[in-house]
Q: What sequence folds into this?
């Protein structure tokens, strides 16, 4: 059976996952990249280094985000949400990073998957030569689909 996810099911899917795909568009180019995120019912929180996606979102803050959960080809859920990029600083950045730490750290299994910021000072990069950008996506619209075998 194929169907549409309702808004509550979309929120549950966003809450249950921590890797999704962020899509942005600027200068006649579309860029989609996997990212780790945390969701709090209103925002998606993320962090990254300065680069192509940050440059693009600064030019055009309207983005989309896709997340899915696939058990097999006959049992899956997928949601696409749209929203607005907001770069964070100060207390808002600290809150976002703490939200990410709380979501991701229980699942960290290797040194290479550890975040590049200090846990005792989450807004301070471990490597001061790396410019960390903390941001959130304010969600404005959502849609979702599912398939479930009978």
A:
């Amino acid at each position: 059976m194929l169907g549409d996810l309702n808004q509550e099911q979309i929120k549950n899917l966003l809450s249950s996952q921590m890797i999704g795909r962020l899509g942005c568009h600027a200068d006649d180019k579309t860029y989609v990249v996997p990212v780790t995120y945390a969701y709090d019912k209103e925002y998606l929180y993320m962090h990254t280094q300065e680069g192509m996606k940050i440059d693009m979102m600064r030019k055009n803050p309207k983005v989309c985000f896709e997340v899915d959960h696939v058990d097999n080809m006959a049992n899956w859920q997928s949601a696409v949400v749209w929203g607005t990029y907001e770069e964070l600083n100060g207390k808002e950045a600290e809150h976002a990073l703490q939200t990410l730490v709380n979501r991701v750290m229980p699942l960290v299994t290797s040194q290479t998957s550890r975040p590049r910021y200090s846990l005792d000072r989450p807004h301070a990069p471990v490597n001061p030569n790396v410019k960390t950008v903390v941001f959130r996506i304010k969600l404005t619209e959502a849609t979702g689909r599912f398939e479930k075998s009978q």
User: Anything to note?
Assistant: The chain has a mean pLDDT of 89.
